[in-house]
C-alpha cells in the first residue's frame, strides 16, 4: 500500500559532521513529528546477532516497537525462520505484521523461492548483493539476468528488485554501474531498492537519483550515515547526517512504496534497543 506523506512539524537538529550541512539538500537540518504515523518496515538483518536463538520472541518485539512491515533475509534458518512459508505467514498475521519483501540468494533455487513467496502473498524478492565487477560488461550481463528473473517473478505475481551498495555508485570505465543496471533492465520487470546509506557513502545525493529514475526505486533502506575516525558507520536514525525528512517524501513522489529501516552497527546501543529508537524516529517523521 502506498504510504501517505504528512505535513512536517518542527524539531531541531543539526548534529556535528565533517560535511557542510547547510549547502547539501540530502543532509539533515530538521525532522518532523505528528501524533499518528504511517507504516514502515524493518529489515530483519538489523537483528542478525540476536534473532537466530529466538526468532518468534525477537520478531514479536519488532511488532511491539511499532513496525507494521518486515523484510526478511536468508539467515541460517531460512527466510521463514524455520516455520515454513505458511507457518511464518500465520505468525505474521497473528502479530498484525505484513511480510512485504525478502532478501534472498537469487542465484540459487530462485524459482522455488519465488513460488514459496507467491503462495503467501509476499510481493517482492530482492537481490541484495552481486559485488564489485571488473568491467561494465559484467554489469550488463547481470542486467540481462535480472530481466529474466523479473519475468519469473512477474509470472508468479511478484516483483524482482536489486538492492544497491556503494560499488554501483563508483565509476568504472567512465560510467556508473548503477546507471547501467537501470538503463539495461526493463522497468516492467525490474525494480530497485535504494539503500540510502550506501548512496550517501558513495558521495551521491539520493534525491537526485529518485528524480533521475522516477518509478524505478520502489523501496528504500532507511539507514543513517555517520563517520567515526574516517570509518563510515550506520547509526540510530536521527544521530547521523541524512535528512530523511527531506529525502523520503521525494522518494514517495517518485515511486517509493515501502520505507524499510535497517541498522548494521550498534555503537553505544544494542540491536533491540536500536530498533525501538528507530521506530520512535519513524513515528515522529511520519512519511
Describe the SSE topology.
Elements: E1 41-43, H1 55-65, E2 69-72, H2 84-95, E3 98-103, H3 110-119, E4 124-127, H4 136-156, E5 159-163, H5 177-183, E6 190-195, H6 196-201, H7 206-212, E7 217-222, E8 224-228, E9 231-235, H8 244-253, E10 258-261, H9 271-285
Parallel strand pairs: 1-2, 1-10, 2-3, 3-4, 4-5, 5-6, 6-7, 7-10
Antiparallel strand pairs: 8-9
Please identify the top-level CATH class.
Alpha Beta
Number of strands: 10
Strand order of the largest sheet: 1-2-3-4-5-6-7-10
- The string of secondary-structure elements, in order, is EHEHEHEHEHEHHEEEHEH
Rg to the nearest angstrom? 18 Å
CATH superfamily: Divalent-metal-dependent TIM barrel enzymes
The figure for the number of domains is 1
Spatial shape: globular
Helix content: 25-40%
CATH topology: TIM Barrel
Poorly predicted ranges: 1-23, 29-35
Rounded mean pLDDT is 90
The biggest beta sheet reads: 8 strands, parallel, barrel
Structural class label = alpha/beta
Compute the number of helices: 9
User: In CATH terms, what is the architecture?
Assistant: Alpha-Beta Barrel
- Give the termini distance in whole angstroms: 13 Å
As a percent range, the share of strand residues is 15-25%
